[in-house]
């Protein structure tokens, strides 16, 4: 009986695979779009599940395989999926026709409280929350938060000096400890000492660790929203008691203290004091509960640690490989300290042009996020290739591939910060640089992340010079669904004389 059941199940699965593969292929043939045939049911996700590479690298293979196609389709079970290659079409999706592609292509389940954040939200709810969080990232607000990052950076240099072993390597992890201390200060307020051995760092590292279960859950989330909902998958359930508890405690304490620290906790109280969030046009309403605000802080935490540490690490790796650039940056940093009585400020950091160019170029070569996703919410037609896209189609757009395409960046594998000189900027048209995404859903924390990363880099380079060590196999990227994390490379800090 058991064997018969297994046999029947196998036949049903095989029949579904055969039918679904044919269906996907026919669907896109009718629309005149080339179809990636290697796995007609799971497309690029099959490559990701079976090989030790990041998803972004598999997309890059498709990009190179179809150099003349404006878009390539691949199977993702029953959801039509399109990988857009042409820059005009990319611009159409991310900016020109944002209304038709305002959805991120991901949706969280209702009981997954910490996934109820801007990244996963869509529609009017996304608009309401994004609007209420935007004031945290204005220049004025960042200026008032600069002291938090500076303190974390100064304490981090002291921490490295006290622990000589940390200078020798494992630098990505060490940078994560700095980032976690800084974002901890920005969310919960600074204390007298930055905390480098924090439970929040462990939480953010665990939340993004590539375990089998997490890879499976994110793959289902990307392949099919209905299936993800049906299986009622939670992504961050295990972190709820710790993180929501910490936010609740901070907010209640701050209410009773009645002091302004210019951090996220202050902003939460101000939002809560104004009551229900309302969209007058649609009538959509949202209560700014502790849980809703904790979910935003939770994602800020993850983003403040992993991609921000990646951006810093990529910059240090490239500086260590290019001594002339490193020397120029050392000079810029030393001059800034000397001209400002050894006291930096938000304006001084933002004004460091060469640092900005070196970091932008490092993030061009190694963008912490390799591609973007959207979902079509209104039937439309992509301008190049006249491709009909129906509501419900999942869209993937390249970041890494554009950043490495010689058509847009001549000699793309070379590290050249001069590409980002103001006078050379015309050639880097707006849509070609996407380290922080593009359009209305562009990274809300871009300026915060840049300030945190730059402040950390400035204090590190004021005190240390660096050596980059690459293994014989050469630089690679780790297997990861979203992030592009460098592997086979490390950075050593050497005290400056
Ligand atoms: C160097 C560090 C970072 C990088 C490279 C990065 C990159 C990105 C990218 C590529 C996106 C997708 C944008 C799009 O779809 O067009 C994104 C979205 C987002 N990022 Fe970041 N990010 C970084 C740091 C941060 C930080 C520190 C925060 C918060 C404090 C943050 C908050 C967000 C949020 C909330 C979204 C979702 C925006 C939306 O859907 O409206 N990010 N980020």
Structure summarized in a few sentences:
With 497 residues, this protein is α+β, with helices and mostly antiparallel strands. The protein has 18 helices and 13 strands.
Give a written overview of the molecule:
The chain is of the alpha+beta class. It has a single domain (2-495), classed as Cytochrome P450 (Cytochrome p450). The chain is built from 18 helices and 13 strands. The strands form five sheets. It has a five-stranded mixed β-sheet with strand order 1-2-3-9-6, sandwiched between helices. The chain has a two-stranded antiparallel sheet with strand order 4-5. Strand 11 and strand 12 (486-487) form a beta hairpin. The chain starts with a helix and ends with a strand. The model has no long low-confidence stretch (mean pLDDT 92). Bound molecules: protoporphyrin IX containing FE. Protoporphyrin IX containing FE (HEM) is lined by residues 104, 118-119, 130, 299-300, 303-304, 307-308, 311, 368-369, 372, 435-439, 441-445, 448-449.
Rounded mean pLDDT score: 92
CA-based gyration radius: 23 Å
Q: What CATH architecture would you give? A: Orthogonal Bundle
**Bound ligands, named by name, code or SMILES:** protoporphyrin IX containing FE
SS content category:
alpha+beta
Under CATH, the topology can be stated as Cytochrome p450
What's the shape? globular
What's the number of extended β-strand segments?
13
Put simply, the count of helices is: 18
Name the helicity range: 40-55%
The figure for the number of domains is 1
Kindly provide the name of the CATH class: Mainly Alpha
Low-confidence stretches: none
Percent strand? 5-15%
The first-to-last residue Cα distance is 77 Å
Instruction: Give me the side-by-side strand order of the main sheet.
Output: 1-2-3-9-6
| CATH H-tier superfamily | Cytochrome P450
The biggest beta sheet reads: 5 strands, mixed
């Amino acid at each position: 009986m058991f064997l018969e059941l297994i046999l029947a199940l196998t036949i049903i699965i095989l029949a579904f695979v055969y039918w679904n593969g044919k269906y996907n292929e026919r669907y896109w043939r009718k629309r005149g779009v080339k179809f990636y045939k290697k796995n007609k049911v799971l497309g690029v996700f099959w490559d990701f599940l079976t090989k030790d590479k990041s998803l972004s690298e598999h997309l890059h293979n498709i990009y190179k395989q179809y150099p003349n196609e404006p878009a390539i389709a691949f199977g993702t079970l029953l959801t039509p999926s399109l990988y857009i290659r042409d820059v005009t079409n990319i611009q159409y999706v991310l900016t020109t026709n944002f209304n038709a592609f305002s959805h991120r292509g991901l949706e969280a389940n209702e009981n997954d409280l910490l996934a109820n954040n801007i990244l996963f939200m869509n529609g009017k709810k996304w608009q309401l929350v994004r609007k209420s969080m935007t004031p945290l990232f204005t220049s004025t607000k960042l200026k008032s938060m600069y002291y938090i990052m500076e303190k974390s950076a100064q304490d981090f240099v002291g921490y490295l000096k006290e622990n000589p072993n940390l200078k020798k390597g494992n630098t990505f992890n060490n940078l994560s400890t700095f980032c976690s201390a800084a974002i901890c200060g920005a969310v919960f307020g600074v204390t007298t000492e930055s905390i480098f051995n924090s439970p929040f760092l462990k939480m953010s590292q665990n939340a993004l660790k590539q375990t089998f279960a997490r890879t499976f859950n994110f793959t289902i989330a990307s392949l099919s929203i209905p299936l993800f909902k049906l299986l009622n998958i939670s992504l961050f359930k295990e972190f709820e008691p710790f993180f929501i508890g910490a936010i609740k405690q901070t907010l209640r304490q701050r209410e009773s203290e009645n002091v302004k620290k210019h951090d996220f906790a202050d902003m939460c109280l101000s939002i809560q004091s104004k009551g229900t969030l309302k969209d007058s046009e649609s009538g959509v309403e949202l209560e700014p509960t502790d849980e809703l605000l904790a979910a935003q802080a939770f994602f800020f935490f993850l983003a403040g640690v992993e991609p921000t540490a990646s951006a810093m690490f990529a910059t240090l790796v490239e500086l260590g490989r290019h001594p002339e650039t490193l020397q120029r940056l050392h000079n810029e940093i030393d001059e800034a300290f000397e001209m400002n009585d050894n006291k930096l400020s938000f304006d001084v950091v933002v004004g460091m042009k060469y640092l900005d160019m070196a970091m932008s170029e490092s993030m061009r070569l190694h963008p912490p996020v390799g591609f973007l996703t959207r979902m079509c919410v209104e039937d439309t037609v992509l301008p190049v290739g006249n491709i009909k896209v129906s509501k419900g189609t999942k869209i993937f757009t390249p970041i890494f591939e554009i950043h490495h395409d010689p058509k847009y960046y001549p000699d793309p594998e070379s590290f050249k910060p001069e590409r980002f000189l103001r006078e050379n900027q015309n050639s880097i048209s707006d849509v070609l640089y996407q380290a922080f995404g593009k359009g209305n859903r562009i990274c809300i924390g871009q300026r915060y992340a840049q300030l945190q990363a730059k402040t950390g880099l400035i204090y590190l380079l004021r005190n240390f010079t660096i050596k980059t060590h690459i293994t014989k196999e050469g630089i690679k990227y780790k297997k990861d669904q979203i992030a592009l994390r460098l592997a086979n490379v490390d950075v050593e800090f050497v005290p400056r004389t």
